[in-house]
Design brief:
Elements (H helix, E strand, L loop, with lengths): L1 H8 L3 H20 L5 H18 L4 H19 L3 H24 L1 E3 L2 E2 L6 H24 L5 H19 L5 H22 L4 H42 L1
Antiparallel strand pairs: 1-2
């Protein structure tokens, strides 16, 4: 309970404004589209809430992401977007759990993870694994006759890359998810053309894009602040010696 209170106290006016506007926009789009699938709305609300916590480097965001991933998988299954089901249920859910454990072991302070820089070797390994995962999922999705196969496959690529960077505690995770958001906006626009009730998902990932952009800005500031503190502490140690 104390951790939750500290987490909310760490929110600034910008955090609260972005979260509030996101929530209102999602509810409004749900009402306007005449949606009757509450699961779509609830999953979107949980998803956008997870992103604001992740933007703060708070591990609560990872646990909320697990809930969102499961619920979003159900919504995707209804429209036969098996790529999204496989990505979020088979990849995003376990990766969020693993990332949560990694973040808890690498805390910078009570409510913030320590930002890390991915070295060249890390980029090479992550890129190689991403290419392999993409190839495997392409054939799986093709076998399942997944609608909009190209975009579904690219979604797997961007999602896996983003998840890997988040596990590595890199601010560039947000760029990966921003790319994924754009792909998902396209996928759900195609779905909305057939069924208007999916409009909230288009709005959902448009809002996710804005939140991930804010996450990149927030993590960039976090990284700079953490490095500044480390340099100051190093200077103090040198002077004391």
């Amino acid at each position: 309970m104390n951790y939750l209170i500290k987490s909310f106290k760490a929110f600034n006016k910008t955090d609260i404004t972005i979260w509030s506007v996101s929530i209102i926009s999602l509810i409004a789009s749900f009402v306007i589209s005449g949606g009757d699938d509450l699961l779509t709305l609830i999953s979107s609300l949980i998803g956008v809430t997870s992103l604001i916590f992740i933007a703060k480097g708070n591990v609560i965001g990872q646990f909320l992401m697990i809930v969102f991933a499961v619920m979003y998988s159900v919504v995707s299954f209804k429209f036969h977007y098996y790529g999204e089901v496989a990505t979020y249920l088979g990849m995003a859910t376990p990766s969020a759990f693993i990332t949560a454990l990694a973040w808890m072991k690498n805390q910078y302070n009570d409510t913030q993870v320590a930002v890390a820089e991915v070295k060249k070797r890390g980029w090479i390994i992550l890129t190689a694994i991403t290419v392999l995962v993409t190839a495997v999922f392409y054939f799986i999705l093709e076998a399942l006759n997944t609608p909009n196969l190209f975009f579904s496959t690219v979604s797997v690529t961007t999602s896996f890359l983003a998840a890997g960077l988040m596990f590595l505690r890199s601010r560039h995770y947000a760029i990966g998810y921003m790319s994924n958001d754009m792909i998902l906006v396209i996928l759900w626009i195609l779905a909305t053309i057939e069924e208007i009730s999916y409009l909230p998902m288009v709005i959902n990932f448009s809002i996710f894009f804005i939140n991930d952009l804010y996450g990149f800005i927030s993590w960039s500031k976090m990284e700079k602040n953490q490095q500044s503190v480390e340099l100051s502490q190093a200077d103090c140690n040198m002077q004391s010696n």
